Amino acid sequence: MKRRELLLRGASTGAVATLLPALSTSSLAAPTPQFGPGMPDGLPMPPPLAGPSPRLPETDPSRTLLERGWRFHEGEVAIAEPADHNATYLSVKAGNARGAAALAFDDSDWQAVDLPHDWAIAQDVRESANVSQGYRPRGIGWYRRLLRLDKSQKGRRLELHFDGIATHATIWVNGSEVAHSWSGYSSVIVDLTPFARFGDELNWIAVRVDATAREGWWYEGAGLYRHVWLVSRPAVSIETDGVYCDPVHQDDGTWLVPVQVSLSNVGENMAEAEISTRLLDPDGREIHRTGGRISVPPLEQAQVVNRFDPGTVKLWSPDSPVLYCIEVDLLHDGEVVDTRRQFIGFRTVRFDPARGMVLNGVETKLKGVCIHQDHTGVGTAIPDALALWRLQRLKAMGCNAIRMSHNAPAKEVLDWCDRLGFVVMGENRLFNPAPDYLAQLEWMVRRDRNHPSIVLWSVFNEEPMQGTHAGVEMVRRMRAAVRKLDRQRPVTAAMNGSFYNPENVSSVVDVMGFNYYQGDYDKFHALHPDKPITSSEDTSAYETRGAFGSIPAQQVITSFDKEAASWGATHRDTWKMIAERPYVAGGFVWTGFDYHGEPTPYAWPTVSSFFGIMDLCGFPKTAFGIHSAHWRDDAPVIWLAPHWTWPEYEAPGREGQTLEVFAITNAEAIELRLNGEVIERVPAADRIMGHTFQVPYRPGRIEAVALRGGKVVARAVHETTGAPVALRLTPARQALASDGEDVQAITVDCVDSRGRHVPTANLPVDFTISGGRIIGLGNGNPNDHASEKGSKRALFNGLAQVIVEGDASGRRLTLEARTAGLRPARLALARAPRAPRPQVPPVPAEMPITDWRRSASFAQKPDPAFAPVDGDNNSWDFVRSGIAAPAGSSGWRSYRTRFTPWRKVAGEGGTLHFAQITGTAEVWLDGKLVARKTDAAPAALSAPLSAGTGARTLVVLIEAAQGAASGLTGRVYVSA
Ligand code: GAL
């Protein structure tokens, strides 16, 4: 396609915008209260946040969620070989896909599902399944959905967006193969326009997902695990990801926002497009407006480039994530017909070889974590509200950077990163500059290049070819592809060795990324003093949440930050290496959260990882306290481990034994007290390594007090609890929105008679819910094989999690938890009114009969048995119902088809429906006359369909009135 360009310049206006949904970023700033062991009741989770989870503003109103009314089949659906030559001939024609991709396939016994959907997480773990993928069988799965497009949609640009399908996928629309996807982390964008059917003629979408394919060595889920959208835009419209507006800081200190809008035209004629572009300030007020006109030839693209000189702006930073908005309207006859909103932030980022990352002129250490898209109970199908909650957990720890390892994240995650204030290393999944794969990298950069959060692109993670000539050539090409699309951000690659090979990729990246190899920082820096350096991945330390002693035989690892992979180091040793070197931009801990799979250093029966700073539920391990002390400067922090419930209420205790106690703070001094008595005072606390004390165990109250200038600024307390007497449910937020989408993680624990969290309880708990549903459960134990679906879960070291989704009724959601011998807990969650986001309505399934052969016209009524000879594809027309035979040719035509009724109808019989027949007609089923239409005027007709298995032959003889159109002018279908 040819590209056209037009350059225009913005003019300042004072008008006030009304369209921008107000969502102040400050209201999202993660709460940073002191929490953890310092909470009086000992629950290591923050108190509930006010209100429901916020929702992201809609940035593309042409999209509607297409997530309800899908059918799912787990496993392959075999396609029979075509029986003969003619069947073979027909099988390869457009629209004629067979098996589960065929229009009329009977999916009535498939499971009804809503998206996002990860079918692997519902599987039981099996030792024979892949260790890295968490011992969960993945396999093949099929999805189908019927779609009705109103006649008014004809002529518009229609797209389907699948934001992520794990892992390989083939997509059919109306029996034509429309897309293949070779990566589970790229969007699949289907141009539906040429395949669409309108009005009563329904559309079938079929997706075959091959999750036997692997792209990672971690749990990847299976199925349509991210959002799916139907997009409807005018014939001339703004393209998907078609607005590029990354602010540029100029040498003279001023800002420029070039806004490049890509348009395309699916219409038949050259069209004039008018663009109006506005820059909105953080309060949604318009501060500048510009625009332009351009003509877009049919089936071509054109680009309009505007520029804003915004003058003085508020800067974006992790501490102050201020967002502006570019709003682009496409106008037709003065009316807005298509709109996109793109949030932007003004910040300068530079990676300096001596000073690390310089953000807005200030050295800013990357206090980062690597994450996968995975959570207990839901696997990879993480609802938006849960994705936000996970990021808020990181923010509360003082984390300011995230590496999206090792793939593009869901778009919503980046939107939240912009709003919460994280800088992000975007990362490509597959290291390959061949066109199919380069397209994945280009898609990612095009989609994500406006985000202020994104500061670096990583083209690979740990590739064995990194120290070869071929590796260098590959990176050169991938970097060049990034450069073409993003003029500003540096490119890195996460290398694990080969840094000193004569040819290695460190020579062709802008920023050197070290995975581990911390002992090489200084050597590399000395050899390449002009090359900026960051740790792209580090740590890989192991902890089981709530365990304070390793038990190798049980595959349990202490949470005292003592054990790490041979290639990694403890949290504290790692950060020391990074913190002490100003030239190292920062680090990315492997990992922020545990994830399914990769159970290193163990294997079965361990099924999830030990690497997380938090467990699979987002419950903090000691590492959370360590990083809070390392990273938070906004508030005093102190963390104390272990809990103080030894002797356990039910087991022989440790009375008199000397216990190891660990405390860490960002304050000046620590005082450790047991039962009010000062045991030890540390006047100059080590913020990085913390302090270990040996304390003879006495039940009661252990307390670590953080001091600054002699004043107590924070304290962490553990008390020896009694036996549990009651369960407790603590929500993440005080309310749940009534939009049918909001979800919440509920913490489950039990308390003793004084209401204190019992950290050692491992009791089985049963849940009942009303006003919503449980979408998953977990407890963070890497060795637990219980299902993460259903309504039961045991506490593990005192904690479990239930994730609930509210329905759209607005009824109060109640969750009850029970275990034998304890008082049950009941939680009533208030509902906050919020309209559901529009969803494409589900369509009740019906069996269509769309494809017919039509004879020539005869003066005499043909015999119903009259048929083209086998293999004759040339004497009878192929026609689809809904299309009339041309007017003028009076006489009789025969319409023939063969169809196999769906199981229910085959067993019980049903009805044949002709929505409209034009002309007089006779309907013959398997050689028998079953209905007759005596009036030539267009009208509906129905006929009984007797029960019977196998293929049926349907013939409709239609006589046209003199000079009039005739035929099967409406849809034909079968109902039960
Ligand atoms: C790294 C790798 C990560 C993870 C980690 C575990 O080498 O990049 O994906 O496998 O090791 O230590």
Could you walk me through the main structural features you see in this protein, from its secondary elements to its overall organization?
Residues 1-38 have low confidence and may be disordered. The chain is built from nine helices and 62 strands. The chain folds into six domains: 63-236, Sandwich (Jelly Rolls), CATH 2.60.120; 248-344, Immunoglobulins (Immunoglobulin-like), CATH 2.60.40; 361-539 and 568-594, TIM Barrel (Alpha-Beta Barrel); 658-719, Sandwich (Immunoglobulin-like), CATH 2.60.40; 721-836, Immunoglobulin-like; 847-975, Jelly Rolls. α2 (384-395) packs parallel to α3 (411-420) and α4 packs across α5. Strands 26-27-28-29-30-31-32-35 form an eight-stranded parallel barrel, surrounded by four helices. The protein has a six-stranded antiparallel β-sheet with strand order 5-4-6-12-9-10, with no helix packed on it. The protein starts with a strand and ends with a strand. It has 976 residues and is mainly beta. The chain binds beta-D-galactopyranose.
Explain the layout of strands and helices.
Elements: E1 5-7, E2 11-12, E3 63-65, E4 70-74, H1 85-91, E5 111-113, E6 139-147, E7 157-162, E8 165-166, E9 168-173, E10 176-181, E11 188-191, E12 203-211, E13 223-224, E14 228-233, E15 236-244, E16 248-249, E17 255-265, E18 271-280, E19 286-296, E20 301-308, E21 324-332, E22 335-344, E23 349-352, E24 356-359, E25 362-363, E26 366-371, H2 384-395, E27 401-404, H3 411-420, E28 423-427, H4 435-448, E29 454-461, H5 469-485, E30 491-495, E31 511-515, H6 521-527, E32 533-539, E33 541-542, E34 563-564, H7 571-579, E35 586-590, H8 622-631, E36 638-641, E37 658-665, E38 669-674, E39 677-682, E40 691-696, E41 701-708, E42 711-719, E43 726-731, E44 735-737, E45 743-751, E46 764-770, E47 772-778, E48 792-794, E49 800-806, E50 813-818, E51 825-832, E52 847-848, E53 851-854, E54 877-880, E55 891-899, H9 903-908, E56 910-918, E57 920-925, E58 928-933, E59 939-945, E60 952-960, E61 967-968, E62 972-975
Parallel strand pairs: 1-20, 26-27, 26-35, 27-28, 28-29, 29-30, 30-31, 31-32, 32-35, 44-51
Antiparallel strand pairs: 2-19, 3-14, 4-5, 4-6, 6-12, 7-11, 7-14, 8-13, 9-10, 9-12, 15-17, 16-17, 17-20, 18-19, 18-21, 21-22, 23-24, 24-25, 33-34, 36-37, 37-40, 38-39, 38-41, 41-42, 43-45, 45-49, 46-48, 46-50, 47-49, 50-51, 52-62, 53-54, 53-55, 55-60, 56-59, 56-61, 56-62, 57-58, 57-60
Helix pairs in contact: 2-3, 4-5
Bound molecules: beta-D-galactopyranose.
